[in-house]
Design goal:
By secondary structure, the protein is an alpha/beta fold. It is built from six helices and nine strands, in the order ααβαβαββαβββαββ.
């Protein structure tokens, strides 16, 4: 039996910080041209597969879901935190948001053309990553596009406070893009591109594109 205490800790932590998180990051994408470009590439790849449903898994308050919708994708959001989903529904009332876990997505097989996990894999322990990727593989249709965004590097740290000073209890895992690409290939995906972004000194974001 697996220990899913990390899921409970993640849910509670993000319920606690939901409002502050939304306030702090609401307009952050406007100042991130590289991230907008990466999302535009994701959208182009989805359109090349004939469009269709796109899931933003670990959507938080819905800011990336809303951006994907604004650039023409039929996107909806899923998040573990009910408080985050409440914020997302309030701020983006015309879009679809659902409470759910990336370890067990309540979605039909092969129902998605695209799946995005935007800095939401960062709290998943290494030994649970195969479970998450198996679920992503299941819900993507053949040819479907996957984009993982994460903190690049190596090692883990326990985060006990964040987003306005509120208490949290989550591990933040950093991974090299090559390791993430290897996990995707092992799960049956074909990893197509690995990218790095350095928005500030000692801050690195990793991005891996793959398809089923």
């Amino acid at each position: 039996m697996r220990d899913h205490g990390w899921l409970d800790d993640t849910r509670t932590s993000y319920d606690t910080v939901a409002a502050s998180y939304a306030d702090l990051l609401r307009d952050a994408l406007a100042g991130e041209p590289f991230q907008r470009g990466i999302l535009a590439l994701f959208a182009e790849l989805v359109r090349a597969q004939g469009d269709g449903l796109v899931a933003d898994v670990g959507c938080g308050p819905g800011r990336i879901t809303a951006h994907l919708h604004s650039i023409g994708l039929d996107a909806f959001g899923v998040d573990l935190s009910p408080a985050m989903i409440d914020v997302a529904r309030r701020e983006h009332p015309r879009l679809r948001f659902e409470v759910g876990s990336m370890t067990h997505l309540e979605l039909a097989d092969s129902c998605l053309t695209g799946l995005l996990a935007w800095f939401s894999l960062i709290h998943v322990p290494d030994d649970e990553v195969p479970t998450v990727l198996a679920e992503c593989y299941r819900v993507l249709r053949p040819g479907g596009v996957m984009l993982l965004a994460f903190h690049a590097g190596d090692g883990s740290r326990l985060k006990t406070q964040g987003y306005g000073g509120h208490p949290m209890n989550v591990y933040v895992h950093r991974r090299p893009p090559a390791r993430v690409a290897g996990w995707l290939n092992a799960a049956g995906f074909t990893a197509e591109a690995e990218m790095m972004h350095r928005p500030a000194p000692n801050v690195e974001g990793g991005f891996v594109f793959a398809h089923r």
